[in-house]
Amino acid sequence: MGTILQFVVLGLGLGAIYIGLGTGLLLVHRATGIINFAQGAMAMWGAFVFAQLRLDGTLVFPIGSVELARRPPVAVAALIGLAMAFLLGLLVHYVIFRPVRHAPVLAQVVVSVAVMITLQALVVLRFGPNNIDVASLIPEDSFPLLGAEIPTRELWMAAIMVLLAAAVWAYLRFTRAGVATRAASENERAAVLMGFSPDRLAAVAQVVAIMLGTVAVMLGSSLTGLNADNYTLLVVPALAVLLVARMESIAIVVVAALLMGAFQSLINLLITKPFWPQWAQSGLDQVVPFAVVMVILFVQGKRLPSRGSLQTIRLPDVSIPRFRPIPAVIMLVVGVAALSFTEGTWRFGITTSIIVMLLALSYVVLTGYLGQISLAQGAFAGAAGFCLSKASVNWGIPFPISLILCALVATALGMLVALPAFRIRGAQLAIVTIAAALAIERFVFNNYTLSPPEGNPIADATLFGLNLGVREGRDLSRIAFSLMVLVIAAVLVWAFLRVASGDTGRAFLAVRANERAAASSGIDVRRTKLIGFAISAFIAGIAGCLIGFSRGQLSAESFSVFAGLQVLAVAYLGGITSVGGAIVAGILGPLGIVYTLLRGVFDLGDYYLLISGLGLIITALLNPVGIAGATREQVAWVRRKLSRSGPPPSAVPEAPAPKEPSRV
Known about the structure:
Elements: H1 2-32, H2 39-56, E1 58-60, E2 65-67, H3 74-97, H4 105-127, E3 142-145, E4 148-151, H5 153-174, H6 176-186, H7 188-193, H8 198-224, H9 228-233, H10 235-244, H11 250-270, H12 284-299, H13 325-340, H14 344-369, H15 377-394, H16 401-417, H17 427-445, E5 456-457, E6 462-463, E7 466-467, H18 479-500, H19 503-513, H20 515-520, H21 525-551, E8 553-554, H22 561-574, H23 579-588, H24 593-600, H25 608-622, H26 626-644
Antiparallel strand pairs: 1-2, 3-4, 5-8, 6-7
């Protein structure tokens, strides 16, 4: 019993971090209506500044740094870290979140994901990718209870964060500004009539949220150290806590956060027991947030509150695509020429761009046409890729049967994740899918009983005795493999155009526009969503298998949550509502043509993630339709201008003289 109590108390330290992040998420949502997926990334910046000051006395800025004469005291370093968090909160609000407060949910989700990607990349560049050990702000002590040593540090951490959450509750409950913030969450006109600016209230909420999260990360970093990837993704269990509280109650956030942390700690105790199965010893604690999210959304579903606003902006327009043989042949010829006249790294970059284009196409199907926001496409691709390793090496299934079977595995997984979409959509569905992606990554891809640490080898593809492998001898990018990828991509794009231009595509667009209106017109909304998820996951699965063939061996890093978010970034950047946007996304995608150019010519490969994150922010703010969409709009504008302007006056024939009326 004492050991169980000890692990429960240890879990309160993790719960304290969830309190800070979850309360911040709730406060920002009440003030702006935005679910900030970057909450963890924003909170860790000030904590990293604090840790670096305590480590060697260096004050790190996004650009440049200052080496202090000596390390500042703990209190001074903490205040500097909080000041940096304060400035970051103001910057993010006024430059990024303020312009999208009344934008569609898709734009809000994409912007917050872009901030997450940008800050995570910036932290890695400025502080390094390795774990930073942080000295505890609270003295480490313990006391005996029930035969076990109960730590006091975690108890103090939980108490501090509970008090700070209570202060936020008091602000919302007893101050005029807090009451106005609550009123604005239902109707912004109410806040305006009270004499408050909803924009200023939102700025205050953003700053308080990031500083609260920064305090939580400062306290919690002494438990596990600071790591950019881990603390960025701690937002996922915090989102689960937010949903348990129905995005309304700070008290429930506090209780759910502490219970979540304690339960995850108990799981870490249980997996050490002899009776616990070996296959379930890795990543099970990350399955808990996903399970909580699924249960809450199924139980509460459409009863979750939504925020009132003064304005709604439509999603980017989608045009019904048509298959044009001549442009298609031209593009194929250009692709074959590009692959034939390049070699080595450049050919591999072009091939990777074609594969990333398919992943982006899966976003076009699901998000652009069906209106469902998924952050789990990378997980679908990874499931197919890891399945391909088993199918090609262990089971001996030949190509292309193995390719199709593994893509169908991804399809089944996509249809499973689609079940919550029957009741929810928008940011809530994004929460489900990112929780699913993290659970799959930690429980499946990082599970050494399912995915050995030495990697997952994949046999080369062969067809009728023809070797389609990517490497042979000193040739690291064979033309046969690249042409195979091009042919598969062309077939999938053609199939998508047929589906999108038919009745299924029109059903997708009807559901995207208005689910109730679609249902009233006879469209089976659930069936349509299931078909959309299935098609999208199948395309992502094919892309995952092609990634496996191109690498020859897969690891968990190949399909991490961040890898999937990078593809979402370039998909939105290219234009998430068209095949042209997917093609642009492939060119811009990770390890693609632009990455090869940045790395090989400009030596900026390490800055690729930061550049893509900043590009996504700018695109979401200034050009929601993406590069391809903007190009299409410009072409349409030129055509309208040309059609309106007739031939020059000299070329206009004279009108015939009117005939005199005939006389009887």
